[in-house]
Write a structure and sequence with these properties.
six-stranded mixed β-sheet, 18 helices, 33% helix
Length: 505
């Protein structure tokens, strides 16, 4: 059975470094792409020997700056480099480039004829955008005639809707020729993981060493692709589950869910699904028959209005983090749950060593969406609570909803915080982009004026950074502290059990 290959793009500045990286991932990949445009000038003179040194099928690629590459010297120089790389072909074809990547408008007959003569297949890059994607079928037709060419559709969707349309048009449809989808940008990750569903000849990966703030939304390394997403196990029968939100840069959920699928030998995959709106996430789910999803910020509140029914926890907290189709039928209406409530209750029981928090006074910091879920959980644990926030309207509404107190959060309310300091719960979320890109020194302490005595239990509803300034101060003062890592893990396990009907041991 056909299976989409894994290609590793090598973008180091020297051949030596590219070979070192290749060796690290050799057992994970099928093809290596040498990005000549990334090499130093002197290094470009050595490219002819690269396939022999690499000892793996290689793609010769010299990407223009206008197409997102780094080659700026002009087409004449680029043509010479192409010629130098495929000239003097070896009788042992393994020592030649297996593929050469040429753009749709690159028509130098001598290069194309040489490639044909030497058994080097042409990957023909076709650049499309959402405004001209409707012309793609006709453009592909023009490229299907030469059997030695593999059309490569290079596409950067500007919304999840654009990616959804691609899956509708090409997923699991009859294929008349080999083709490649090279999808980039903010919404690309599902296409990389589900290349098999698009029947793409290969999917592109980057070494972990080369993933940065410019490509983290779409780039994935071969180890993660295989170990976390079981890439080689995905087939036409694989059930798809997802976590949707925005920006959704990092999440523990895919690793937890996919580990469970592997452990119990389930033909499922759980993917990150970044979306600008919950409506687009629903449309993607419809197109790929997704029957259950985890819902992350900022959609936890607004998703409720799109559901046929919701659990008591979701209704009371006006927040829903888990949705699934009625009866597991991908065409049925959605049902919603708040699985975080049970996870929070279990976490607080473990932290306090008590089955209930009767007699405890709890300070809930901030009045955002997370605060509502925490307030409901604390109410279920029979504690007395007070919400501290400068969002007076939201704080007052939450206090009235759950029958608890509320207060402004500033230096003048220190005595009030001390009164409710048996358990201090920090629910304020940080900017995920800021934290993920290393800006942890800019993460704010929401109660810098409060001096911990050491008797408080302090909990944060975030796990990145691992220890915020607030949590660090509390720990140094002798407080029992915890972040949301275990809570998130517990929540994901509960969702897994709801999605599959199997106990996650």
């Amino acid at each position: 059975m056909f299976h989409s290959k894994i290609c590793l793009s090598l973008t180091a500045s020297t051949i030596e470094e590219d070979l070192r990286i290749l060796e690290k991932y050799r057992n994970r990949i099928d093809v290596a792409e040498l990005r000549v445009d990334c090499l130093l000038q002197d290094e470009r003179l050595k490219i002819r020997r690269f396939p022999e040194l690499a000892n793996i099928p290689c793609i010769l690629s010299i990407k223009r700056a206008v197409n997102g590459g780094f080659f700026t010297e002009g087409e004449s120089s680029r043509t010479v480099l192409f010629a130098r790389a495929i000239a003097f072909a070896n009788q042992d074809t393994r020592k030649n480039f297996a593929y050469i990547d040429l753009e749709e408008d690159f028509n130098v007959s001598s290069i194309q004829d040489a490639a044909l003569a030497f058994g080097t297949r042409i990957i023909r890059s076709i650049y499309v955008n959402e405004s001209n994607i409707s012309t793609l079928p006709k453009r592909l037709e023009r490229r299907l005639m030469p059997s030695f060419e593999i059309p490569k559709i290079v596409f950067e969707p500007q919304s999840l809707q654009g990616l959804t349309q691609l899956f509708i048009d090409y997923a699991e449809k009859p294929v008349t020729c080999e083709h490649i989808f090279d999808i980039g940008g903010l919404y690309a990750m599902p296409a990389t993981i589900l290349a098999q569903k698009l029947q793409s000849y290969m999917t592109y990966t980057l070494p972990k060493e080369m993933i940065n703030d410019q490509n983290e939304y779409w780039a994935i390394d071969p180890e993660t692709l295989e170990d976390t997403y079981n890439y080689r196990g995905v087939d036409n029968d694989t059930k798809i589950f997802a976590i949707t939100g925005n920006p959704l840069i990092h999440s523990l959920s895919p690793a937890i869910h996919n580990l469970g699928y592997k452990k119990y030998n389930l033909n499922n995959v759980y993917i990150p699904l970044r979306s600008a709106s919950i409506e687009e996430a629903f449309a993607f789910a419809d197109a790929l028959n997704i029957e259950a999803m985890t819902v992350s910020p900022p959609f936890k509140g607004e998703v409720v209005q799109y559901l046929e029914s919701i659990s008591e926890e979701a209704g009371e907290s006006a927040s829903c983090d888990t949705i699934l189709r009625k009866n597991g039928n991908p065409k049925d209406d959605w049902q919603g749950y708040n699985m975080r409530v049970d996870a929070i209750i279990e976490t607080f029981r473990e932290l306090s060593g008590r089955k209930t928090l009767w007699g405890c006074k709890v300070a809930i910091i901030d009045a955002g969406p997370e605060a509502a879920t925490v307030a409901y959980a604390v109410k279920m644990l029979k504690a007395k609570a007070c919400i501290f926030s400068n969002k007076t309207k939201e704080a007052k509404a939450l206090a009235e909803q759950f029958g608890i107190k509320w207060s402004i959060l500033n230096e003048n309310t220190i005595d009030k915080i001390e009164e409710y300091s048996d358990l201090i719960i920090q629910t304020k979320s940080e900017n995920p982009d800021l934290v993920f890109l290393g800006g942890t020194d800019m993460v704010q302490d929401p109660i810098p004026f409060y001096d911990f005595s050491g008797r408080e239990i302090v909990f944060e509803c975030i796990y990145n950074p691992k220890e915020s300034p607030c949590l660090k101060r509390a720990r140094k003062a002798g407080c029992k502290t915890a972040n949301a890592y275990e809570l998130i893990t517990l929540q994901a396990k509960r969702q897994f059990e709801l999605f599959t009907g199997m106990k996650y041991e």
